[in-house]
Please model this.
Amino acid sequence: MKIFFYKTLLVAFIFFIVFKITIGSLINEIENEVYKMKSKENIEMFKQNLREQMMTAIQKDEFIKKEDAELINLFIKKIQKDLNVHNK
Amino acid sequence: MKQNKIVNFQYYEKFFIIALFSVYFFVASQIFVDYGFYIDEKFHRANGFYWLNYLSNFFGFTDLSQISEIKLKEIEGFTLPNIGNWNLYGVIFDVPAAYFEIILKINNPIDYYQMRHFLVFIFFFISSIFFYQILKNRFNNILVSVVGLTLFILTPRLFGDSFWNNKDIIFLSFYTISLFFYFKFIDNPSTKIIILLALFSAIGTTIRFAGIFLPITLIFFFIIDKISKRNEINFKTIIFYFFYFFIFLYFFWPNVWADPQGALFSSLNLQMSWKGNINFLGKYYFSGNLPYYYLFFWIVISTPLIHLFFFTFGFYSYAKRLLLRFLTIEQNSIHNDLWRSRNESKDFLVFINLIFFMSVLSFLNINLYNSWRLGYFLYIFIIYFASFGIYLLIIKFKKNILQLSLIFLTLIFFLTYRIILYHPYQSLYFNALVPTYIKNNVDVDYTGLSSFHFLKELIKNEKSNKPIKIAANSWYPLWRMVDLLSEKEKSKIIILANDQKTQATYLYSNRIYDIDKRYYKKYDIPSNFKKIKEFKIDNTIIFDVYKRLD
Model:
């Protein structure tokens, strides 16, 4: 009983440490990244970046190239057409 | 003749110890005023009056109730959390401190905060006496006990914190006292010792829930005792202990009186622990998802090399012996077990404490922050094993005891020099081998100890008659320090919020941030400001000051 008790404790402890160092460590890292992504500061930074990019776009002489503008135009028209067809 | 010599030696030993403690007390009483004030002092003062008011109402002390209520209402500040929502902290320090403030009629902010600082020191001083008794009880050797005690007192982060930290130092103190009575319990589980062990372990538990581990180890030892058929601990003793433990726990935890289930549930869920971002080696982590090596790393960089050397030697020697004991365990032999004598069982107790807390604090995503102050009580076990290492060295070199003593003395001088070098910022200590880039890429002055010194110096040196506008360019409520200034000094400054920093003349930063400065602009220094001061100790930057140029 005594030897069994000690060995069980030792095995459980070693298992816990090995699990934590291997899989637990990975989970910890992922959790930390998720926390950072979800954080208020990150969302604020994203909004700020978006604003800055929009300002940059406004200040540029030509933001969308001619080919891209034509492509986007065609794409929007296609969407409008499909929406009209399906909403009749 | 021989008996006379022993009596004389005991007399000198006693004299030497009293002299050592007297010197320590005298030095402390001279320097405790040098220390800064930390971020939570105002909150804990309010906590003291909140519970003093509750207790005086409960016991019908009308005068005390009225005074404490007035004092509580006087403590205000928009940066302070609501005490009613954050009242789970232990009362063992805050209530006596509030009581002394009333009884001694201390009304000057500096005086009552310094009184609290001195009270923290008194707790630590008492615990150091108990730590000495622990070493004496275990090793029965004056040199080991004295060197071990010196290491305990001169552990820089404990030395510094013992003059202000009213949470971690108080917990460490009660854990030390509990451990002493545990040792006494192992020697002789008399009724008096059981009650005292229950008392101090219960008080420890009210301060930090980690204190519950000592009662748990008692059950663990009881199980081992039964399956080993030692029969040294009987069931009645355990019941007796837990009966008193829960009585004292209830008595010293007034929060439980009003709402037992709610208070216990909140404590078990660690609802009072702060959660936020921690700067560790230049990268920001959520306090509950720190790398597993966070605690170990902090212990290594903030503990003096002398401690680390003796601890490594002592811990290695003990672990080796324990492994050998484990490999030779026999089913029906008390002799062939994890320990053979009472002294060895004490070593085992400290060993499982260290391993348990290191594992829990490192691997169970406990919120760690402010370096590793929450784990400072681990120093009890670290210094115990360091003393164990010293004990083994003394046995090994018993013929050269004088030379060995001189080596210890030299090492202690070096340690003292390092402590003087850091004064009064020993709480921010790094050992001599830590490179500068590490020191400046972790949280250093996390409680803003430097802010009061900064304000005093700025006010003293500023010649202008106009009020000086100051903003904190770090995650720190500088407003809380203004209460400590005199009315004349207060009139000379205006504290601005971080988002108003462009209007300030000076920016103060204790270099603690709630966000990663590399990606967020909240703490960027406006272009019309220039750094005028970088306060450093041992190449560790404690705080920065910027001044507006136009």
About this structure: Chain A is about 90% helix and 0% strand. Chain A has a mean pLDDT of 89.
